[in-house]
Design goal:
Number of strands: 5
Number of domains: 1
Strand order of the largest sheet: 2-1-5
Order of helices and strands: EEHEEE
Strand content: over 45%
Structural class: mainly beta
CATH topology: SH3 type barrels
Helix content: under 10%
CATH architecture: Roll
């Protein structure tokens, strides 16, 4: 079974917009599920890893799902 890559445009609490952020471990909803999960690594357009806190995200708009 192939893993899906979820692509988001994410607005942070400081107003910054991160475009085309890739989540390879599942949707952000599933990755932030539970009390112990506060940080999630995702990739930006350049392939760099960005670690986001659930408290930084104001809005995450799902742009695409790749298989």
């Amino acid at each position: 079974m192939k893993k899906k890559t979820y692509i988001y445009n994410i607005t942070l609490t400081n107003g910054e917009l991160l475009k085309n952020i890739r989540s390879k471990g599942g949707s952000l909803q599933l990755r932030f599920n539970g009390i112990g999960t506060n940080f999630v690594p995702v990739e930006d357009d350049d392939g760099r890893t960005v670690v986001l806190s659930k408290y930084q995200i104001v809005k995450a708009e799902l742009v695409n799902i790749e298989e």
